[in-house]
Amino acid sequence: MHKEFLMGNEAIALGALASGVNFVSGYPGTPSTEVLETIAKRNPGSVYVEWSVNEKAAMEAAAGAAYAGARALVTMKQVGLNVACDPLMSLEYIGVKGGMVIMVADDPGPISSQTEQDTRTFAAFSKVPVFDPSSVAEAYDMIQEAFAFSEEWKTPVFFRATTRVDHGYESIEVADQEEYAVHQAEGFVKDSSRWVIFPKLSVKNHAMIEKRNAQLSETLSGYHRNYVLPASGRYAEGGAPKGIATHGISFAYVQDSFEKGEAPEILRVGTPFPFPEKLALDFLRGKEEVLCVEELDPVIERALLEVCGRHGLSVRIRGKLTGDMPLSGENTVDIVSSALASFLGDPGLAATEDVLPDAPSLPVRPPVLCAGCPHRASFYAVKQAMKGKKTFYGGDIGCYTLGNAQPLDMCDTCLCMGAGINIAQGIGRIEPDTKCFAFVGDSTFFASGITGVINAFYNQADMTLVVLDNSTTAMTGHQPHPGTGFTAMGQAVEKVSIEKVLKAVGLSCVETVDPLDLPRAVETVRRVSEEKGVKAIIFKSPCVALERSGFHARVDADRCIGCRRCIRELGCPALTWKDKKVQIDPAQCSGCMLCSKLCPSDAIVRR
């Protein structure tokens, strides 16, 4: 064993390696991405690792490995679970042979997601057990326990960590590589009565799962991650009629709130589903009120209400449903301390003697495309080509969602990965006089865009697909995808050609152009958009974070007439205004020279 200062996702990855994981698949999505990346980086050489094309593919590939007796880990964020839920719902009915852990990173806030959905609720819906760590150190240990649990009960399990655990840091004890467990997969044993899902099998296994989960509720009441901290100090007086129920990172916030060492009885729930009812029942007896401190859904609150109803306990359960805790957003120590102070009638709770001065306000920095981002040039080319025409611009998930900001204003809708293509079809059918465009990134095209293109071609839609190909999965940290030519394990492979895929679908008009060649890009958009049916433009230019030109632009102050057209039309963060002249920040400028093509006085030159 040795100590390392680790991010939560790194700790989860090393915990999986220590448990003898054989197979790891996933799709990148903040805040989950570093788990798979760390396993790929720290791979002892015996683990297969892949970035799958999407979460559904990742789930199914991991299931296959688990069918063969391997220990399999699949990683994603909470919205990725929506993509993977089709195989998951059936997989719970089938079960697994090797341990299979589904690591889902929830994002309360949300900080970098479309939704605040709670995987604990999804666990109850899908009847899949869920493990909910409270800290980096616990995440390292708990994922190893999750693999053993999955194997013992022959079920996939969720491992639900939230952003503050995923991206928190802690110095923890981890195993040396030579201490890693070695798990030998038995191999797939043919048995159609077990592995082939038919209605008869589903009915039988559904009944078995319900019975098993009731048994697990009893078993998990004795699991050491579910426990009750006894009341202390003044809170232990008078029979301790009030208690706190909590979980995950909120448990840490509760502990921080009681930093003076005195606290009421605290029920800490490490497995929200199946809920540890026996432990909760022991906790509730003798209580008058319980405050549930949790993030997102009132999972514990509802579970305690059910326990009270089933056992005839007259305990008032408070939390989100009673307005004592916020209904949405992530918790903080301040939010939790305030709620606890109100619940316990202790206004001085968690007050400190040293009052720090208020921090100065930070400058507001709205999300913006990077200076030199080729997507800015792509959006601008389309905007110029379609000026004066009734046009719809369907957006999608990725860096290019930032194209919605002024002055570009080129993202009319954004729903979920791949949806922009199908939404453009729907709007085009209702408004046939509208020119419909759908923007999609290269990674998103492979993940969930191809089916939309096929649907559009098959159903004879009239729309223009714009693939923004920057040769990486930029938004989540530049992971490879099928179009990059290498895998998560660093293997060089043949690239999957987006152009060939589109032509194979049946599109006859597919053109590739460099968006930084602005005149040609504008002319291409004008010409292609007039074609009938489904047509495609591939704007191909590498992400500026991967390739830089080695020079930058500068403004000739004598030529600059102060019209600010470059600033008003592009919104590039490298462009600034000072002393009635445009200036260019050389630290940000990548030398794309797009701004020079707009300047009416040729004041912007290459340096």
Helix content: 25-40%
Strand % is: 15-25%
Helical region count? 19
Name the strands of the widest sheet in spatial order: 3-2-4-5-7-6
Shape: globular
The name of the CATH architecture of the largest domain is 3-Layer(aba) Sandwich
Mean pLDDT value: 93
Number of domains: 4
Brief synopsis:
By secondary structure, this protein is α/β, with parallel strands linked by helices. The chain contains 19 helices and 22 strands.
Structural notes for this entry:
There is one protein chain. With 607 residues, the protein is an alpha/beta fold. The chain has four domains: 2-220, 3-Layer(aba) Sandwich (Rossmann fold); 227-344, Rossmann fold; 374-540, Rossmann fold (3-Layer(aba) Sandwich); 553-606, Alpha-Beta Plaits (2-Layer Sandwich). The protein has 19 helices and 22 strands. It has a six-stranded parallel beta sheet, with helices on both faces. Strands 9-11-10-12-13 form a five-stranded mixed beta sheet, sandwiched between helices. A five-stranded parallel beta sheet has the order 14-15-16-18-17, with helices on both faces.
Question: Helices and strands in order, then pairings?
Answer:
Layout: E1 2-7, H1 8-18, E2 23-26, H2 34-41, E3 48-51, H3 55-67, E4 72-77, H4 78-94, E5 100-106, H5 119-126, E6 130-131, H6 136-153, E7 157-162, H7 163-166, E8 169-174, H8 192-195, H9 199-220, E9 227-229, E10 242-247, H10 248-257, E11 265-269, H11 277-284, E12 289-293, H12 299-311, E13 316-318, H13 333-344, H14 374-385, E14 391-394, H15 419-430, E15 435-441, H16 442-458, E16 463-469, H17 498-505, E17 510-513, H18 518-529, E18 534-540, E19 553-555, H19 565-570, E20 575-578, E21 581-584, E22 604-606
